[in-house]
Every structure is written in structure tokens, then in C-alpha cells.
Structure of 1-deoxy-D-xylulose 5-phosphate reductoisomerase:
Amino acid sequence: MRKISILGATGSIGTQTLDVIRKLDGELRLIGVTANTSVQKVIEIIKEFEPSYVGMMDHNSAEEIKKYCEEYNKNIEVFHGIEGLNKIASLNEIDIVVTSVVGMIGLEPTMKAIEAKKDIALANKETLVVAGEIVMKAAKENNVRILPVDSEHSAIFQSLRGNDISTLGKIILTASGGPFRGKTTEELKNIKVEDALKHPKWNMGRKISIDSATLMNKGLEVIEAHWLFGCDYDNIQVTVHPQSIVHSMVEYTDGSIIAQLGAADMRLPIQYALNYEKREKVIADTIDFYEISQLTFEKPDLDTFKALDLSFRAGRIGGLMPTILNGANEAAVELFLNEKIKFLQIAELIEKCMKVFSDEVEKELNLENIIDLDRRVKEYIAEKAVL
């Protein structure tokens, strides 16, 4: 039985991880969970899974959980704030940590988990985007496995298995195209929040849904893939595949391509990461190839969906530029969700920040500088929200 912690247990990936635990009854034991303010959801998790540790980012929410545990005689340690995240990421009892919190907040607890020699089931894109060099170096030094939970990176991981990494020629990341595939810049000028949240294939959180609509989600995955698999940006290609059946592909030096296919169900890569190196019983729908009419692939429109192009640029520049890209995106997406800016302004603000903060790029790449620059970029966005 593998013992796990889930950082962000009430979000999209967290709740699907809980379903994997249910389906694989007896194979996985939930030891620790964290959430932000979702008290009632955490109480339901406590009732069903009986974890030993709970962390709430919000202090008042942590106090509510403590009261519940006292009232019902639950022997659970409750923490709050970033210290709680760090604690539950590095518990002695656990084997693997599912990092499914959204945003920069996932970086510090991921590093704490690596230092505690815990394997990482990584669903927090920002960790590798802003600190890939630091994270992968620490993982190697601590003999920790970074097991990707994103469907695309899991597909690449599986397609590489059993082959010599030196024969990797090209990574082909597939993208659904999001809800606005095929639309022009003119058509995107007055997009509403509710329209941007309507992903055609995947059930995701609000921030990730907007990232998918702008194609920033794919851009962040490009940077992740660079660090996870040691692949040069010139050898990472993005193709739009609206059916979301081919989750990504690897082209080898001899021209052969290996792909991983499956249902559009995040429980598949979650299950693979949590049970690596073995495969477990099927927990999602399987594909009936007699029912598939076609699989199509398209070149992404980088002029309309500038966020993807900006991500390639930031990755190639390196240093602290991906921190600028990511911080600006987080802040701009939040403004759009709160209806303070228009959809196309997300990419415009990101590009502006990449220019304004360009002198910061070559500073030493360490956690202190990453966190500080992230803060300053977000403060700048807050001041310059109206272009």
C-alpha cells in the first residue's frame, strides 16, 4: 500500500485523485490533505478517508476543521498557511505527494517534499515553469522521481518508457484547441468569462480553463516538457488535436513515432503516476476504435493565440523570464475572471511585463529571486490593468 498526501485535495485534480483511491480500494492510503477554504469538502474527505493530517491555507478555515475534529473525536493534526502545506508535503509516513495546487504557491512545498525524499506526482505546472532547473537538480540529488500527472506529459513519459532517452528526436504535444479553436482575433475581442470557461473536452478548474482558452496552458506545458525530458525547445512541437484522444507523441531519431492514446479522463494519468511502475485495472472508459470517425491535427494559430508564442520565447530566453511569464499570466487571468480586463488583454499584459522586466532575467536563479520577482510582476499588473 502506497501512502500519499494531496496538496489541493478539493480542486479538480485533487477530487479525481480521491476517486482513484476509491477505485483502487486498498492500494492507496490517504495520509494528508490540504485545501484553501473549502471546509465542508474537507470534512467530507475526513469522514470518508480518515487522513491523519489536514492543512488549510486560511486560518479561520483551519480553526473550523479543528473544532469539527474535537467535536467528533477525530485524532487529526490540523495546520494552516504555507507551513501547513510544507508539513503535509514532507510527512515521514508518506511515499508520494500529489501536488495539485494551482499557481506559484506549489513551488515551496514541492521543494520541501523533494528534500524529504518523497516522490512527486506533479500536477502543478508552475513548479517546473519558474524553477525547472532548481527542481530537477534537487530531485536528482535526492533520488526523487518526478512523475507527471498532466495528461500530455504522462503520455510522453509512457511513450519514452523502455527506450534510450538519447534517441529522442522530437516531442509532439497535443492541444485540444480550447473553446475558441478556429476563431479570429476580431471574434475574441468581446469574449465573456463564462464562454472562456466552457472547455469542450476537459473538466478543469477556472484558472486552468482560461489558460486552455488562451493556449497559455500549452505554453506552460512546453516549458515543463523541456525540463522533464531534457528536450530543446526547437525539438518541441505543438499540434492542435480537437478529439483529445492522442495525448502526446514522441518522435525518435529514426523517424518512428510512439503515441499514447486514451479517454479524456484525468484519472488515467493520475493512476499511472500513483502506481508507477505498474499498471492497475481500468478505472475509466476505454476507446472503441470502431466509433472513432477521425483523428485530426492542426498547426496552432500563434498570431491569434499569442500566449503560446510568448511561452516559447520565455523558455528560450530562460533564467527568470519564465517567472515573469507565469506571474503576469496568473495576475492577468485573475483580472479577467473578475471581469476587469478583456480576454485578449491577458496576452498583451504578459508581453508587456516580459519587456518591462527584461533586465531582471539574468539575476541568479534561486527561490528568493523567483518569489520576489513573481510578487513584483503581479503588483505591476495590478497597477497597469487598463492598457
